[in-house]
Write a structure and sequence with these properties.
- α1 crosses α2, α2 runs antiparallel to α3 (41-58) and α2 (25-38) crosses α4.
- This protein has helices at residues 6-14, 25-38, 41-58, 67-83, 89-95, 111-114, 117-121.
- It has 129 residues and is mainly alpha-helical.
- It is globular and about 35 Å long.
- 57% of the residues lie in helices and 0% in strands.
- It has 7 helices and no strands.
């Protein structure tokens, strides 16, 4: 896997000037990690959510934004970054291969809960314990 310069991509993401069609799941992770390094968690979450919501709307898919998925994943990334010794994004991903799985949150959330309209609008707590 060729890893992009996520610092530059994160800047494009915040400026809402990237192409949503070519923005992969790994790109989401890379940008989120950059933003979590740049800002404290709450500021990163606000900035990430705002940009992602606006990018989805500009792409004609506003219903693709999901507040629960976004905040749960940012929380998981933040924790993993804090406890995983790494010197590069590639090393971080190698040590956290499960982050590349789109079904990762299924350990904590049912599909019905994550796919709900309410989950798109507001953060919902996990329903699997």
């Amino acid at each position: 896997m060729v890893l992009q310069d996520y610092s530059a991509l994160a800047s494009q993401f915040e400026a809402e000037s990237l192409d949503a069609a070519s923005f992969s799941h790994v790109d989401h992770i890379g940008v989120a990690c950059q933003m979590l390094q740049r800002y404290d968690f709450l500021d990163a979450a606000v900035r990430y959510c705002r940009a992602l919501r606006n990018i989805a709307a500009k792409a004609g898919a506003p219903d693709k934004f999901n507040m629960t998925v976004t905040l749960a994943f940012l929380s998981l990334l933040s924790e993993r970054m804090a406890v995983t010794p790494h010197s590069s994004f590639a090393e971080f991903l190698d040590k956290n291969e499960d982050l590349s799985s789109r079904s990762l949150l299924g350990s904590w959330y049912s599909a019905d809960r994550l796919d709900s309209a309410k989950a798109r609008e507001t953060f919902l707590m996990p329903d699997r314990f």
